[in-house]
From TrEMBL:
The keyword Membrane does not apply. The lineage of its organism: Bacteria, Bacillati, Actinomycetota, Actinomycetes, Kitasatosporales. This is FAD-dependent monooxygenase. Keywords: FAD, Flavoprotein, Monooxygenase, Oxidoreductase. It comes from Streptomyces longisporoflavus. InterPro entries: FAD-bd (IPR002938), FAD/NAD-bd_sf (IPR036188), RIFMO-like (IPR050641). Residues 7-339 form the FAD-binding domain. Pfam families: FAD_binding_3, Rng_hyd_C. PANTHER family: BINDING MONOOXYGENASE, PUTATIVE (JCVI)-RELATED, TRK SYSTEM POTASSIUM UPTAKE PROTEIN. One of its GO terms (molecular function) is monooxygenase activity. Its cofactor is FAD.
């Protein structure tokens, strides 16, 4: 549906998990998109190593979760700065983290993107942007001194923590500077006497050795006495020397697949949108990778932004809808930055931190504390600031079992197309009548809940609603209880706010 004179409706810079997920969301909505990626091919570097509950739910909402479950391995354990957390199977169909390497995640998303018709242009690095009233002109370096230009309605920077798009747009990146350095690499450790080592604290730092594949270990060595030059390329020798410093030996380390470096700098874009330029994933926020939240947050950024941007591109909703992307996701990232700062502080070596960890560990055993930290890390407890006083308003919708005239289904299966759903569970003629005004863009489904009560993380069980409006990202925009007449004025307001005026 590319507009006249445009190469695409949207250009996305960066073919990592965030950029690919956003491209797929836009294609589901019929938006023409080009992904530009500076690298000539995927690196194959393992990078991030897991997917949390809410991201698993998002993949389930799109009908592609089985692809990831077939490759990864579920692990019934999580942690907050190395202190173990318990998970609650009643909170989600997918309560446990899935251990799966970022390289595999990117491959699966790239395959899905190809199926949906996403165009990916590699060896193409953004070098300039100029936006005006009708679109964005994106200048590209395409290798060997060559250049190209693309014209699109919008540009989304998903190009990492050192985002070129963010810098060219002049968007600030305030936060806290690094206080430590960690080296990470996938290597062979023939002399390691254990199956794995998980955050072994020592003088000066800590180290881990985690077996992701037979014979291969993810080694992480954190040095709290060093802040490395971010422009200096990390080396295998530095990883070996740091492990020797912390553990007293390198355990026969050899054959590195890749080596990288991270630190505890925590920064966030001052704004996620500047006119027709938006940011998502690491381009919008960076932090200490404690608890494996970064990739998950980027994918959830994409799912929050995709349907909103598509609605604006299609002319169904005003541009102001895009401002809700910043409002909702900036606050989520700020909380992640804070909890990773806390985890970094809890990991520091020294007697004072040892004492703090002992006290903190004694608190985690309490259900309320464990639930609070679990909800924060999994993102199951996120509640966006939407209008409406119902307990579900703003929260992610539970994946309830449903009975319809066409047979059994569940809520997340209704979201496979990436369209919003007005779900009537109480047979309300008023709800059905209101829904007709948005029938071109909102699916109306009559069903009956199999359960009288729905589990809601951070709250517990609540009575199944009589009706609810579910956004494409799986968050509830409006809901009504069975004991009350549905507030159809509030429903019309929610439909208009999120999906534009009635047809």
């Amino acid at each position: 549906m590319t507009h006249t004179g445009m190469d695409a409706d949207v250009v996305i810079a960066g073919a990592g998990p965030t950029g690919l997920m956003l491209a797929c969301e836009l294609r589901l909505a019929g938006v023409d998109v080009i992904v530009v990626e500076r690298l000539p091919e995927r690196t194959g570097e393992s990078r991030a190593g897991g997917i949390h509950s809410r991201t698993l739910e998002v993949l389930d909402q799109r009908g592609i979760l089985d692809r990831f479950l077939a490759v990864g391995e579920l692990q019934p354990v999580g942690h907050f700065s190395g202190l173990y957390l318990d998970f609650d199977e009643s909170e989600s169909r997918h309560p446990y983290p899935l251990m799966i390497l970022q390289s595999a995640i990117e491959q699966l998303l790239e395959e899905w993107a190809a199926e949906l018709g996403v165009r990916v242009r590699r060896s193409a690095e953004v070098s300039g942007i100029a936006q005006d009233a009708t679109g964005v002109t994106v200048e590209l370096r395409t290798g060997e001194g060559q250049s190209a230009t693309l014209r699109a309605g919008y540009l989304v920077g998903c190009d990492g923590g050192r985002s070129t798009v963010r810098k060219l747009a002049g968007i600030g990146f305030p936060g806290t500077a690094a206080t430590m350095t960690a080296l990470i690499g996938d290597v062979e450790l023939p002399d390691l006497p254990e199956d794995y080592v998980w955050i072994r604290r020592c003088e000066g730092g800590d180290w881990s050795a985690i077996a992701f594949e037979p014979g291969w270990f993810r080694v992480i060595a954190s040095d709290y006495d060093l802040v490395a030059d971010r422009d200096e390329a990390p080396t295998f020798e530095q990883l070996r020397d740091t492990l020797i410093k912390l553990a007293g030996t390198d355990y026969g380390m050899h054959s590195p697949r890749w080596v990288s470096r991270f630190n505890d700098a925590a920064r966030q874009a001052a704004q996620y949108r500047d006119g027709r330029v938006l940011l998502a994933g690491d381009a919008a926020h960076i932090h200490f990778p404690a608890g494996g939240q970064g990739l998950n947050m980027g994918v959830q950024d994409a799912v929050n932004l995709g349907w909103k941007l598509a609605s604006v591109v299609r002319g169904q909703a005003p541009e102001a809808l895009l401002d809700s992307y910043h409002t909702e996701r900036h606050a989520v990232a700020e909380r992640v930055l804070n909890n990773t700062r806390a985890q970094s502080a809890l990991a520091r070596p020294g007697a004072q931190t040892d004492a703090l960890r002992e006290v903190f560990g004694s608190l985690i055993v309490f259900d309320d504390v464990n639930r609070h930290l679990r909800g924060m890390l999994t993102a199951l407890d996120i509640r966006y600031p939407v209008d409406g006083g119902h307990l579900l308003a703003g929260r992610r919708v539970p994946d309830a079992d449903l009975k319809t005239a066409d047979g059994d289904t569940r809520v997340y299966e209704l979201l496979h197309t990436g369209r919003p759903v007005l779900l009537d569970l109480g047979g309300s003629a008023e709800v059905a009548a209101v829904g007709k005004g948005w029938a071109d863009r909102v699916d109306f489904v009559e069903a009956r809940s199999e359960d009288d009560f729905w589990p809601v993380p951070a709250i517990g069980e609540i009575s199944a609603p009589a009706a609810l409006l579910v956004r494409p990202d799986g968050h509830v925009a409006w809901a009504a209880d069975a004991d009350d007449a549905p507030d159809t004025a509030a429903l019309r307001s929610a439909l208009t706010t999120w999906f534009g005026p009635a047809q």
